[in-house]
Design goal:
38% helix, alpha/beta, 319 residues, 12 helices, 13 strands, Nucleotidyltransferase, domain 5, 2 domains, 5-stranded mixed sheet
Length: 319
C-alpha cells in the first residue's frame, strides 16, 4: 500500500485534519474544536488522539504514513519543532509540537494552492489570504521562503497609507487594516460619515446595525453607490500592495484567497486594474493575479505537502 501524508490546519476555533496521498488528493478529512483552555495545553494531546482515532476508523497504522505536516498560528522554529506567539491558542510561551514539519497558516495555504490549486505548476508564486487579518506566503523556485526569522510573507504589514489606521502589530497604515474583512468594514464606516446620497450601507451604519465585508461586496454587486466606492478604495490599497510584491519578486502568479476573496471578480477586477497601474511594465505584463481555488482545504493540503520532506527531503517531488 502506498504511503500517505497527514495534514493539520490548526486554528483558534477549529482544527482541521486530512489524510492525503502523495499526489495531493484528499482521502479523508475531518475536524475537531480547538480547546485553548489552560494555555492551550490540551491542543497537542487532542490532535494526537484525533489522528489515532481516525487511523483506527480507516484501518491504518503509523507505517502507512510518511509523516505529519501542520499549519499553525504564531512563529515557527522548524529546527526545534516549536511554536511561539500563537496568542489565539493560548500559546504565549514556547510550545513544542513534536515530530511534525510546521509552517504558519498562510504559508500552509500558499503551499496548498501552489501544489494543487491556482498555482498552475508555476515555480514562483505569492499567496495572499484576506480574512480577519491578512497573511501571505512566498514560493520561489518551487521552495517556500521562510526568511531569517520566519517572517517572510508578512504581506499584511506592507504600508499602504502612511500614518493610517493603527494596526495590532504596532505600526500604522498596514494593508491588513484596509483589505481584511474588518478593514473593509472600517473603511465603510469612515466613508459613510461623509456620504450624502442614498445607500443601504449608510442606512445600516446610521441605524447601528451589523455590517460585514460580505454585505459590502454584495451591495456593490447590486448597484449601491457607496458600496462601490468602498470596494474601489479597498481594491486600490490591495492593488498597490500587490504591485510592490510584484515589483520585488515578479512571480508568475499572485493568488488571492481567504474569505474576502469569495467576492470573486468584484474584488479581482478592480484590484488587477490598480495593480497594473502601479506595477513596473515588465511585471505588469508577466505577473498575473488569480483567485484561490482550494477554499478551506488549502491549509491541510499545504500542511501535508510539508510531510513529504520525511520521504526524501524534496517537498514537491511528487508534483
Amino acid at each position: 500500500m502506498a504511503k500517505k501524508l497527514i495534514g493539520i490546519d490548526l486554528g483558534g476555533t477549529t482544527t482541521k485534519f486530512a489524510f492525503i496521498d502523495t499526489k495531493g488528493n484528499i482521502l479523508a478529512k475531518w475536524r475537531i474544536p480547538t480547546d485553548i483552555s489552560e494555555h492551550g495545553s490540551h491542543i497537542v494531546p487532542n490532535m494526537i488522539k484525533s489522528i489515532s482515532d481516525q487511523m483506527r476508523k480507516e484501518d491504518y497504522n503509523t507505517e502507512d504514513f510518511f509523516g505529519i505536516g501542520m499549519g499553525t498560528p504564531g512563529a515557527v522554529d522548524r529546527e526545534k519543532g516549536t511554536v511561539v506567539g500563537a496568542y489565539n491558542l493560548g500559546w504565549d510561551i514556547v510550545q513544542p509540537v513534536g515530530a511534525t514539519i510546521s509552517a504558519n497558516l498562510a504559508n500552509s495555504a500558499a503551499l496548498g494552492e501552489y501544489w494543487k490549486g491556482a498555482g498552475d505548476t508555476a515555480q514562483d508564486v505569492v499567496f495572499i489570504t484576506l480574512g480577519t487579518g491578512v497573511g501571505g506566503g512566498v514560493i520561489a523556485n518551487g521552495k517556500l521562503v521562510h526568511g531569517i526569522n520566519g517572517g517572510a510573507g508578512e504581506v499584511g504589514h506592507i504600508t499602504v497609507v502612511p500614518n493610517g489606521y493603527q494596526c495590532t502589530c504596532g505600526k500604522r497604515g498596514c494593508l491588513e487594516q484596509y483589505a481584511s474583512a474588518t478593514g473593509v468594514v472600517h473603511i465603510a464606516k469612515d466613508m459613510a460619515q461623509t456620504f450624502t446620497g442614498k445607500s443601504r450601507i449608510k442606512e445600516l451604519i446610521d441605524g447601528d446595525e451589523d455590517l460585514t465585508s460580505k454585505m459590502v461586496f454584495f451591495l456593490a454587486d447590486n448597484g449601491d453607490i457607496l458600496a462601490n466606492q468602498i470596494v474601489d478604495r479597498v481594491c486600490s490599497y490591495l492593488g498597490l500592495a500587490l504591485s510592490h510584491i510584484g515589483n520585488t519578486l515578479n512571480p508568475e502568479n499572485i493568488i488571492i484567497g481567504g474569505g474576502v476573496s469569495n467576492a470573486g471578480n468584484t474584488l479581482l477586477q478592480p484590484t488587477t486594474r490598480y495593480f497594473q497601474e502601479n506595477a513596473f511594465p515588465s511585471v505588469r505584463d508577466s505577473t498575473k493575479l488569480k483567485l484561490a481555488q482550494l477554499g478551506n482545504d488549502a491549509g491541510v493540503i499545504g500542511a501535508a505537502s510539508l510531510a513529504l520532506q520525511f520521504r526524501n527531503n524534496q517537498p514537491f517531488a511528487a508534483k
